[in-house]
User: Fold these one by one.
Assistant:
Number 1:
Amino acid sequence: MASLAFKVKSKNGQNILKDLTSESTVGELKMFLSSLSEVSCERICVLCGYPPKPLDISNDNKTLSEIGLKTGETLIIEEKSAPSAPSVAKSDVTKPIENGISHETIGCRPGILMKKVVPSDNSCLFTSIGFVLNGNVDTSVHSLMRQIIAMEVASDQDTYSEAMLGKPNSEYCDWIQQPSSWGGAIEVAILSRFYGLEMAVVDTLNAIINRFGEDKNYGQRVFLLFDGVHYDPLYLEQSDGGIQTVFPAEDMDIYKEAEQLALEAKSSRQFTDLNKFTLKCMICNKLLTGQVEAQKHAKETMHTKFGEV
């Protein structure tokens, strides 16, 4: 029996499902998807393919091979409308599917936009993206994300030229897979496309939001906070103790909250000036001030491992 792996997208973010085989049943698939998406088996709707189309999962006894599912497929989970549901206000109606993701407006939003502090270990960008995708701090996710980025860059040497990367393509691919290498705009853009999400980076140094994937019309958006050196994820802390990290792209209320957070952070100087921040060379322990000094030290000594101080 062939093992299968699926990328699963739902309102809870993105997950990888690896626990099924070609002989697993539709009923088993629905139970796993229900656990990941928190949508009951009776109301699960699965979209698959490009453009995404509903998958026939009406017969729980059919095998996954019989319904044509292959490893590597992306499964988008939606929730069917409850039958004979009472009429609701216009603002609560589920909107049509766009790019395979349904958009739901949020009426009265309980909670406040908060920052989740992640470790300053040179992989803070990747840990932050892992948090908004999965809802927990996992410092091991950087390895997979670095591999994803290296594969994308290596596959398109025309786009990812030395002029864009600041180093030869192959050298960059080796560099980005080192745990000591920092991620930035190039890496955010690649991961935005890979995960099919708009990634809004709240820049507290300039009090602006840089939107990666804005031109792709993705149905969902996540928020990252950037202070000039360090990334942290943003989430909505709800009154019932739960958290929300993925938001409909059309939800401009939460976007405005993020804009306000950027303004408040800048006014209270919660940012790092790249010309003044301190780095430590992890090879010779020399302290360096600012990005320029760090680059000069790396060029002179070939030391490339730096830590935040």
Number 2:
Amino acid sequence: MKIGYKLLAEGYDPKEIVRQAVAAERAGFDFVEVSDHYHPWLAEQGHSGFAWAMLANAAAKTERITLMTGVTCPTMRYHPAIIAQAAATLAILSDGRFTLGVGSGERLNEHVIGGGWPAVHVRQEMLREALEIIRLLWSGGYHSYDGQYLEIAEARVFDLPPELPEIVVAAGGPKAAKIAADLGDGIFNTEDDPSVLEAYASEGGKGPRYCEVMMAYAGREQDAVAAAREKMRFGLTGWKVMAELPNPGSFDAATATVTEDDIRQNFSCGPDPESHIKSVQNYVNAGFDHLTLANAGPDVDGFFEFFTSELQGPLRELKTA
């Protein structure tokens, strides 16, 4: 069992995100993942720094913890040739402590370049081509690639690390799970649904299984609920909505009716460690072995102390029920 911490780049400024990465290492987390977004989900969040700059700074200020994009879309806002170069460089700067998390993206971030927003089956084919390009460039030498959607011409990544980063592919259904099995080293999800993992395994996927676990810590349960509703209610819309809305205003409208009771039903909230442990157990039962704790509560440093003293030991002992 590996336990990570979600660096919510939408909710904090870039210097604070780097500080949290350092604090997460000190608290005992195995890895951190950072959102790679252009916009925040909600205006109340108020931030969205450049993930790659924050990760590079975090690499310089940490020694042990693994760094991860959670996740990058390597098809529109970025060309996969750029991501191949960026990931290789970050792997070198971090002495091999980098994992490349990738996915097919959200309109919220990718439409900003003005290229429209393709249908989901097109986005998945683009992701497959992007991963083929990244793998090709990581093999060394000059390469060209002529896909249906993406291409490279006589491109070469000159600085490659001694050991290439793992690629973990976000998958919400069987088609994306097949991409993860075919071209990834692991799979990533945000729901405790075992069916995607079953699809991944049926296609030959054998790598690590990542999932984000939403929770909200505070000294009082009500404070945790209120903070989660203010800044993290977008998560209740579901992935099909989250992938399609274009801006924070749209998410504000889509979540206007989310209540505090809705938050309580979907987040473990408050200071009781048992409620959080019970929530994580659901993800372990589903088959995930790399769990990223995403704290929606108002007290980041309090959560780190809570993790060290109350959560870390019990979570590392969890077994499939």
Number 3:
Amino acid sequence: MRTPRRGSALDQAEAAFKSVTSKTEDKPARTTTPPEGKEMVSLRLDRAVLEHFQEDGPGWQDRINAALRVAAGLDPA
């Protein structure tokens, strides 16, 4: 036996949409800033640049990241 529906499918969809989009005091505010952390990417670098950073051994990816942060003005030189 089917459970009777309450309202039309359109009414149900609208109610569901309103329940997730309406602001209530119980819901925390959403932030637009991305979480801190690192993201894996694929990047093509000149062989000379890669060799320069790899000369000092492990940690070369962190050194590239630090150099890019300085170049982008995100960290002081």
Number 4:
Amino acid sequence: MKIYTKKGDKGSTYLIGRRVEKNHLRVEAYGTVDELNSFIGRAIANLSQKTCSDVIKELTEIQHQLFDLGADLANVTESPSYKTKEIYIDTMEKAIDTYWAEAPEIKTFVLPGGSVGASDLHICRTVARRAERRVFACAKEESIPDEIIKYINRLSDYLFAAARVVNFRDGNTDILYRSNHDVFK
């Protein structure tokens, strides 16, 4: 079987249920989710198995969930069965709370950086925010389940908390943004 079909050579692609142009809002949304998934793979490759095995395990599970979420975004059939579940969000929230308690308290924003793995997670966070904007734009035009919107919103919070805990475990101090007021209370 060949990997190329030549069916998209004129600027269209298949969703699950119909053919659309490649710049369709759903294609933009699941394409950005796919990009995020690739960056998460890079972050995993740069994390220490010794200090971050729990983060690596969670990120690998998130990669699977992002494939499900992308399939959900691509599904435009009349009665779709969605794979993105509320339990995914609950699990992420528990991890966020754990990492937030483990890393030193902050009251201001931090500059993205630190270890290579933490820096990669900050990149993932910003790509997750872009994916969220794409998903939300799509939701303004088409029916998108609330779980998808909540999941992608919570994911950027998870990635921020994970980046901070990775830096902490690797012995790096977050560089606090010079600000004249506290933002985390």
